[in-house]
Amino acid sequence: MYRDLVESRIRELDGTAGFALTRIEIAGPAPRGVLDTALRSAGGRLPAGAAEFYGELNGFTLQWTYTPPGDADGIGGIGDEGSINLLPVERSRTRSTSTTSANRSPGSRSRSPTTSPRR
Predict the structure, then answer these.
(1) Per residue in 59-71, is it b (16+ CB within 10 Å) or e — as a string?
(2) Residue 74 pLDDT class (50, 70, 90 cuts)
(3) Per-domain residue ranges of the chain
(4) Whole-number mean pLDDT of the chain?
(5) pTM of the model
(6) How far apart are CA 39 and CA 36, in angstroms?
(7) pLDDT surpassing 50 at residue 29
(8) Strand, helix or coil at 5?
(9) Most buried by CB count within 10 Å: which residue of 83, 97, 105, 106?
(10) DSSP 91-109
């Protein structure tokens, strides 16, 4: 389910005018022992869906650039770039509220992680 959702979103972005995906890395499932260690480190309780997510893919990285259609040379100066880096469970801090980092260029607008991209 989670791997399918990530791969579907990547295909959607790849087909969106102006988006250029510059790095895509999707890890395989986390080993059961790693998930057990994370569960113990978290005091016996992981956030809802975390074990299922990491059981399907142990993190992913996605980087992109965006240039609005019609501004291929970038002269308009309204392009953007960004990334999502969801760490493998063994590298994440179990006590933090998020293991996702989003990097945006200065002056770019931030979107909620649940917001669908413009079509």
Answers:
(1) bbebbbebbeeee
(2) low
(3) 2-104
(4) 79
(5) 0.67
(6) 5
(7) yes
(8) helix
(9) 83
(10) GS-TTSS--EEEEE-TTPP
